[in-house]
Design a protein that fits this description.
Helix content: 40-55%
Strand order of the largest sheet: 3-6-7-8
Number of strands: 10
Structural class: alpha+beta
Number of helices: 16
Shape: globular
Largest sheet: 4 strands, mixed
């Protein structure tokens, strides 16, 4: 494996193939995933998510609870996928029962799916039936990494492949390879961690670059919890774990993107210690109360504590994530901590808010919003006519404080 020239990302995002006769090299190493996920933020992937959300919404008209289970598991609304254990706690169901209901609902959705020609082309173009297994696996892994969706990688990969026209057994096989890659990496990390101390200068440089984005409250140093507030699914077998010497114990994580953050903190000499999921933050979405567990709180060597939440770059402007972030920021400042959203990119929220966007794009989109709720097909039309990019769209949503709901898409005035 190549040396870790970019802090922790090289060891983190190079995952070994473990398949055999599929065109995927057994025991080989795929090319690295992107250190910066900004290149994976695209309308094409968002189009895939909108089609899936539409199928879930249609299924909800017949079986509301089952559709909600699928929505939570796949992260349809824009938040990260949830573990089966946590979904079970929501509905007072056993973990295996949640799995059964999810599998049944997805099967019914596929049988009921009636995609338009354009929708079918979206899936067929991204996951072609005649594509090599190795290329399909890599594409699905990159999407999984860039959207923080490891917990549901198998289910999402299978659904995307089936909607692209792959036979059931082929979709199961390729989705299985995706999960094998993820699980193989999780098993190897403890051996890789011995090399991480060499990454201290790079990790400290990366964290130093984040410092300008931290929103600090008034007051002095604050205390750091010593236990996780997340207990329902802390030991869920879908989550990864690795030993980090800075805290002297195994630390759980939901995704490779979250693991990258934890390993960066572990390697940085300006971080004294940290605690994953230190708080349970309650927030309200249209009258429904939810609970969020921000990713990690880190105590710096100067005694200050910063609460850091992982939110993929392409998801930071979703309404649910902005509401969730506002609640977490308020809780952090009330506790005397700083607040930071880590996007998996060198672009953070301040850079997005300052992003230069063609004035014609802002004018056209602004006119649509002023006329009323904007549906997805209007945004698609604007994109096709003007070349609007999703990062530009995200920047405009943040700058104008519009409300972007996902699953189904809806853009309105804030």
């Amino acid at each position: 494996m190549a040396s870790e020239c970019h802090g922790l990302s090289e060891a983190l995002i190079r995952l070994p193939f473990v398949a055999g006769e599929s065109g995927v090299a057994a025991g080989g190493v795929d090319e690295a995933f992107p250190d910066d996920i900004r290149g994976e933020v695209s309308f094409g992937l968002e189009e895939v998510n909108e089609v899936v959300a539409g199928l879930v919404g249609a299924h909800a008209e017949r079986r509301k609870r089952d559709a909600e289970i699928v929505g939570y598991r796949l992260g349809i609304g824009g938040e990260g996928p949830e573990t089966l254990a946590r979904i079970g706690a929501r509905f007072d169901l056993a973990r295996d029962r949640v799995r059964q209901l999810h599998t049944r609902a997805v099967g019914q959705m596929l049988r009921e799916a009636a995609l338009s020609r354009g929708q079918a082309e979206v899936f067929a173009g991204r996951y072609p039936v005649d594509g090599r297994d190795s290329a399909l696996v890599r594409a699905l892994l990159v999407e999984t990494y860039a959207t923080d969706a490891d917990l549901a990688a198998n289910e999402l990969s299978y659904l995307k492949l089936r909607l692209a026209g792959h036979a059931q057994e082929d979709a199961k096989r390729i989705a299985g390879y995706v999960m094998q890659r993820i699980m193989a990496w999780q098993k190897k990390t403890n051996r890789q961690l011995a090399k991480l101390r060499d990454a201290e200068p790079a990790a400290s440089t990366e964290i130093g670059e984040w410092a300008a984005r931290v929103e600090w409250p008034g007051g002095g140093p604050a205390t750091l919890p010593t236990t996780s507030a997340r207990t329902v699914d802390d030991d869920d077998d879908g989550r990864g774990r690795f030993y980090l010497d800075k805290v002297g114990r195994d630390v759980g994580f939901d995704s490779a993107l979250q693991a990258r953050l934890l390993r960066t903190l572990n390697a940085a000499d300006m971080v004294e210690t940290f605690q994953e999921h230190p708080l349970a933050v309650r927030y309200d979405i249209d009258g429904a109360e939810r609970v969020h567990y921000p990713s990690v709180a880190a105590r710096l060597t100067d005694g200050r504590v910063v609460l850091i939440d992982v939110q993929p770059l392409g998801h930071v402007a979703f309404h649910v994530n902005r509401v969730k972030s506002a609640a977490a920021r308020g809780r952090a400042h009330a506790t005397g901590w700083g607040w930071l959203i880590w996007t998996g990119s060198s672009l953070g929220l301040p850079e997005l808010a300052r992003r230069e966007v063609d004035a014609r794009h802002e004018k056209s989109l602004g006119e649509l919003v002023e006329r009323g709720p904007v549906p997805w097909h209007e945004v698609r039309r604007l994109r096709e006519e003007s070349g609007l990019e999703l990062l530009d769209f995200t920047a405009l949503v943040l700058r104008n404080e519009w409300r972007w709901d996902r699953g189904p898409f809806r853009l309105t005035r804030g």
